[in-house]
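Record 1 of the preview.
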Amino acid sequence: MKKNSKFSIVYNFIVYLFLYAPILILVLFSFNESKLNAVWTGFSLKWYKSLFTNETILLALKNTLIVAVVSTILSVMLGTITAVGMYRYKFRGKGILDAVLFIPIVIPEIVMGIAMLSFFSMLKDTFNFQMGLFTLIIAHVTFSVSYVVTVVRSRLEGFDKHLEEAAMDLGATPIQTFFKVTLPVIMPGIVSGGLLAFTLSLDDVIISFFVADAGSTTLPLKVLSMVKFGVTPEINALSTIMLLITVVIVVLMELLNKASVHRKKILKFACIFLVAIIGGSSGLAAYVHKGQSPQAELNVFNWSEYIPQSVIDKFEEEYSIKVNYSTFSSNEEMLAKLQAGSTNYDLVVASDYMVETLIKQDILQEINHDNIPNIKYIDPSVMNLDFDPGNKYSIPYMWGDAAIAVNTSKVDFEITGYKDLWNPKLANSIVVLDDQRAIIGMALKKLGYSINETDPNALAKAEKELLALKNNIKAYDSDSPKTLLINGEASVGFVWGAEVSLAMRENKDLICVVPEEGIFIQQDNFVIPKKSKNVKAAELFMDFIMRPEISVEISKAYPYANPNTAAWGIMDESILNDIAVYPPQEAIESGEHLKDIGNKIDAFDKIWSNVKK
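->
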């Protein structure tokens, strides 16, 4: 028996360790001095301090909690009433209704999200209302209520109806019977359904992506959008706090189930606790954002971690315009939102090839350069490019390139270009971008073709090259490839120049190599959608961003190449001399931008699928 007892203890320990080890690591690294999760550099509380001054994260947290709490309350009320009604009464079509209630549970989230988007878009056109927290709450109630009905009905299955009959025989009204007899019995089911609804709402990404609008970004959407630059440690700190909040809520719900004598006190405390959390996050966000009352609003749609909050604050203070800053994680995600037509973004940032796509789809309006006088500071070499001749629809913001990072302590031969990545000495040691156009383009450049080549014979050769390279690739990672380079798991990387720059700051053995075959350049640009309701504010914001001193502030925060020539004169030389960010002029001149290749992208999709099998 003792042996079995010891085995059981060890077994349970291993199971729980397996389940909770990732959470423990997250909590641990929320106190890490370093910005990276890969290396422990010492204990610090600075990320918690940073969290409470990060307005965008606090606003996302506030939105998340409001949506989760309100949708849970509504789901519990509707779900409980529905469950009781369907259990208690028999009526024609009950079986069909049962089946309908299960649809939100079994239907793919992507289908549900598109359906909700279409529904709200139709209502928006008919009744002229804006999507936001209201549509988020309705959408979350729609997919949560079925779970509550299912859980509560399972609790009712063993319920003795004679208890209700006895109560009414003793003079109780139907309402009194429900609250005094039925409700206490099914309360565990209601609590379980409520917790499930709260958790589903708190964690939802897909459906929220389709129905959220400018200014209603939730925390999961915020985290998802941060992958371009890497999820910051503030998220670890916030996750730790939310984990603590969740534990407190679960404990309160358990007490609510067991301690019936003190149920009212516990319920009252739980409500106060939730209100305090929401009010606290709202108050912190308001405190961080204290200033003048805005007279207008500007809805900006951009990559995460691309414009410092300090710059937005200065713009809001000077012009009394409230900036609703929403973020995306890919150009394709941004395109999907604009195509849906359900959002009202005034200013959007799009990469070069995506600008071309947006122009072809007639989504953009022309920009009046006369209203943006500071455009005179933009380097002429990044203007009038093939994707937008004359810059009728776009204004350059930032640009970057894909470079090669090399760990000189681990690589014993010289790397000068793409061709060297196929060296057998680099087996299982290269991290590359998880980007089909970039990686297939790299193979094409190695073979002497353009990165935009679509000839079937050239693509077949590129596919063969990439299949031969697979043995050397350790990971495909566009989110945060610098982590593998910093901790030494990868000796070489073909990643964004900004990632190389950040990695070199942390690991002094790393150097940057500009590929001799030619670099892949990606330029991000401001564009104004046709549905913009505040074009004047969008023009003011672009002009403000192009002020030399503001442009320098952005470059200090994020290591991307800045096309503002006036800013170069007042920028730190260490930034301008970083070839990972600012490659040599000859490399820029011979570099290529991605182009929209239309339906030829299908061939790239097929190659990419074969390569990543």
